């Protein structure tokens, strides 16, 4: 279950991150990272999917080269799937429909006797245009909400040279865990009672545009007229970022509540004289 946000160094031990973003340099790196991530799933009794570019036969051959996958393919514990076979070039993913598809696949995996479903996917082909990127970033937040309560986990991978650092950050910030240097902050789903989302990392002038897009794409839901964010993992927040969060909440007619024990946000709120924001100390 995704409880906190942070940098993932080793996909063999994603720890608390059931939903992680990995920016990779080449196909060899993707195969290696995916293999480690999926091998962990097999040990946990999950069905694992290897999703990438190319035809299914070639992807199955790639999967067989990974430790333990030959037998898993034969038994049905592992399968390969092609992005191009499922999505014609230029397809803009329907976020809700994509989540529903994985929910059905997860239910089928559990019905077949597996403990859940784990997917490692090279989704580069689905985020090449601005329209694709916007839809897929929205999907990333929706699937993160689903993962909180479902036996489903995913490593969403994107090739840096084809997507670019800006797009990588826009996708990575919608995950609770990401590879190093993928994003300066995280906005993700949380199980914390009453919280619309959790936010962590560093927020400053350089993240202004990225934060604006993330807030818009996440479509955060208020609780009793308040937009409550678990901010316990925020490492730094400047006054501009605080004002940005306050304005986002205000534009939707809500009070901003930051749930954190750190003194910084409260000091900023008092210094700026903000009456549409408050800090709530976690129980």
TrEMBL record:
Transmembrane regions listed in the UniProt entry? none
Q: Which InterPro entries match?
A: MEDS_domain, MlaB-like_STAS, STAS_dom, STAS_dom_sf
Q: Which Pfam families match?
A: MEDS, STAS_2
SUPFAM superfamilies per UniProt: SpoIIaa-like
Show where the STAS domain sits.
Answer: 199-283
Question: Gene3D superfamilies under this entry?
Answer: STAS domain
**Protein name per its UniProtKB record:** MEDS domain-containing protein
